[in-house]
Structure formats: structure tokens, C-alpha cells
Write a structure and sequence with these properties.
Length: 110
């Protein structure tokens, strides 16, 4: 699915124009990008987490010449799929975890 197809789907489902859907898409991707540029994690519950990973400097080889080269350290984007997305892709049903109930405060005996 391409960016254009996603925008068309959002416009159709929300009954807004393609221009409005494109603007919303740009705002969302821009916000994720800005947060990641600052080194923040972006978590979308039920979908996944976008984060920044740091790769250390290392040695590599030029495949054409076989000569050893230095590869500089850099930051790269990383995505970890959430449980609901993994389950949807694999076709398994999502099992909701029961929420823990807080015990009611009992009055103290005097």
C-alpha cells in the first residue's frame, strides 16, 4: 500500500477530502519524525513503537575491491510491532488481558 492509497482510504472512511486526509497524514508523520529526531520513542497502542537505535562505528569491506573501509556510527529508525498488530497479521485473535481490580479500602478497626 502506498502513501497515496492510505490517504485515499482515510478520505473515504472519514468522508473528508483527499487534501484534508493528506494534510492529516503529513501532520502525523511529521510529528513522529520530529519526536524521533529528538530521540524520543513514539508509541501507538495496538500498533507499535517507533524508536531510534544507535549503530556503533565498525569496519566493513568494499564488495568490488575487497578493501577494508570504516563505517561511521549513526542513528537509525526502528519499529517494533505491537501485540495487536502481530496478532492481526498472523490471523490470531487478540486475547485481552483482564484488568486488575483495586481492592476497596477497608475501614480500620479502632
Amino acid at each position: 500500500m502506498t502513501k497515496t492509497e492510505i490517504i485515499a482510504k482515510v478520505a473515504q472512511e472519514t468522508k473528508v477530502s483527499n487534501a484534508s486526509a493528506a494534510k492529516a497524514f503529513a501532520v502525523i508523520t511529521g510529528a513522529i519524525t520530529q519526536a524521533m529526531k529528538k530521540g524520543d520513542k513514539v508509541t501507538i497502542i495496538g500498533f507499535g513503537t517507533f524508536s531510534v537505535a544507535e549503530r556503533k562505528a565498525r569496519k566493513g569491506r568494499n564488495p568490488q575491491t575487497g578493501k577494508e573501509i570504516k563505517i561511521a556510527a549513526k542513528k537509525v529508525p526502528k519499529f517494533s510491532a505491537g501485540a495487536a498488530l502481530k496478532a492481526a497479521v498472523s490471523g490470531k485473535a487478540v486475547v485481552a488481558k483482564p484488568k486488575a481490580k483495586k481492592a476497596a479500602a477497608k475501614p480500620k478497626k479502632k
